[in-house]
Amino acid sequence: MPHALLGLSGALRSGSTNSVLLREAARLYGAETYAQADLNLPLYDGDLEDSDGIPASVDMLVRQIAAADAVLISTPEYNGAVTGVLKNALDWISRHSEKPLVGKPVAIMSAAAGRAGGVRAQTMLRTCLVAFRPRIALAPEVGIADSGKAFDDNGRFVSDRYAASVTALMDALKTDVIS
User: Fold this and answer.
1) 3-state class percentages of the chain: helix first, strand second, coil last, to nearest 5
2) How many CA atoms lie within 13 A of 58 on its CB side?
3) For 125, how many CA atoms within 13 A lie in the half-sphere containing its CB?
4) What DSSP assignment string belongs to 10-46?
């Protein structure tokens, strides 16, 4: 597929299973290119915005989203919610004059240590995204439980069930990109 995907991981940790999940999803999609955005952004602060404008790192994120054919978002679940990292990125994106997520095909997934795999965070994320008006792929809800054991040393799923669910989500996303 000659498509460019951009991944947004709600975790900053270098070994995050959400980042591994994004890379595996992009591989299963068959994208020509995949990049993961850097969400290590300054905390949103209206005073900072008023004095300095939109930070260059946020402007770059907005440009990356705009250039991508589709966006993959994966978040851990912290205390039943999306991470501050992801919410902060969305807050900054909402302040930009460009609205790169409007009509953009988006796939949502999560990986978490708990047995529910972060699905409560996905519910909150869907609510947070309403104002952005993306086209969220409707497919199996992908929540990778006990995520530290879900991938092999090469970042591939050890479970055929998870591979099948993510493949179905990526197929739905492809349909959204093509239409």
Assistant:
1) 45, 20, 35
2) 25
3) 30
4) S---TT-HHHHHHHHHHHHHT-SEEEE-----PPP-H
- Count, residues in the chain: 179
Which residues have a Cβ under 8 Å from the Cβ of 164 and sit 6 or more positions away?
none
The pTM for the full model equals: 0.96
What sign does the dihedral 149-24-101-96 (CA atoms) show?
Answer: positive
Q: How many CA atoms lie within 13 A of 92 on its CB side?
A: 26
Structure tokens at 151: 């991938």
- Retrieve residue 163's tokens: 């591979």
pLDDT tens figures, 105-144: 999 999 999 888 999 999 999 999 999 999 999 988 999 9
